[in-house]
Amino acid sequence: MARRIIGAAFVSLDGVMQAPGGPEEDPAGGFAHGGWMAALFDEAVGSQVDTFLRPPFDLLLGRRTYDIFAAHWPFVPADDAIGIMFAANRKFVLTRSDAPLAWQGSQRLAGMDEVAALKAGEGPDLVIQGSSTIYPELFAHGLVDRLVLMIAPVVLGAGKRLFGEGTPAGTWRAVEHRVSPGGSVMATYEPAGPVAITSFAMPEPSAAELARRAAIAAGTW
């Protein structure tokens, strides 16, 4: 059976997923709210994390998230459950850089063709953590099979977004959702095809509506 690619992300109400874990995690672009999810993390969100980090799985990461993880998880206490699990996982890193990947079990992927070949092969599911920059291209190539989102009740205004520039339009089907006591929405989605276009407009537009459309066509609206 071919692998699935499962994107799992902490996101704000306005779609930002940058630096949920701490102020020093990713201050790129002057992002000033690092640690926003850590402040809202509760037991229910932790339980959702446990569901998508249930072995067996491998990690699919962008280079910056890989660097964040490689500077943290190999150095946690020896009995840390996630540290033990990540040490055993294979880490596939989507990057154009030739910089070494020192974390044990790491392998470079140069582009979407290699991701597609990996996905089509034998092995456990591939779980994405962080890695905002790789999502638009994965979406464009139809490679993401499931999204597990933990949507926090916070608006950040700016920062790296899950659905960044280059994300294609599409419909997603809700598979499961719950709300934590702290107000985080935990929702799972799977792709469901193109966007369906219908209309709330009246069958016979009013004269005012026809005039508005004419103004749009003329560029004066």
Question: In words, what does this structure look like?
Answer:
The chain has 221 residues and is of the alpha/beta class. 24% of the residues lie in helices and 21% in strands. The chain has 6 helices and 8 strands, in the order E-H-E-H-H-E-E-H-E-H-E-E-E-H. The protein has an 8-stranded mixed beta sheet, with helices on both faces. A hairpin with a 5-residue loop joins strand 7 and strand 8. The radius of gyration is 20 Å and the shape is globular.
What labels describe this entry?
8-stranded mixed β-sheet; 221 residues; globular; 8 strands; 6 helices; alpha/beta
Secondary-structure blueprint:
Blueprint: E1 5-11, H1 43-52, E2 57-62, H2 63-70, H3 81-88, E3 91-94, E4 106-109, H4 112-120, E5 125-129, H5 135-140, E6 146-151, E7 172-179, E8 185-191, H6 207-218
Parallel strand pairs: 1-5, 1-6, 2-3, 2-5, 3-4
Antiparallel strand pairs: 6-8, 7-8
Q: Tell me the span between the first and last alpha carbons.
A: 54 Å
Helix content: 10-25%
Class derived from helix and strand content: alpha/beta
Q: Which blocks of ≥5 consecutive residues have pLDDT under 50?
A: none
Main sheet attributes: strand count, strand direction, barrel closure: 8 strands, mixed
What string gives the helices and strands in order? EHEHHEEHEHEEEH
Shape: globular
| Count of separate DSSP helical elements | 6
Secondary structure: number of strands: 8
Which sequence of strands runs across the widest sheet?
4-3-2-5-1-6-8-7
**Rg calc:** 20 Å
Question: What does the average pLDDT come to?
Answer: 95
Classify the beta-strand content into a percent band.
Answer: 15-25%
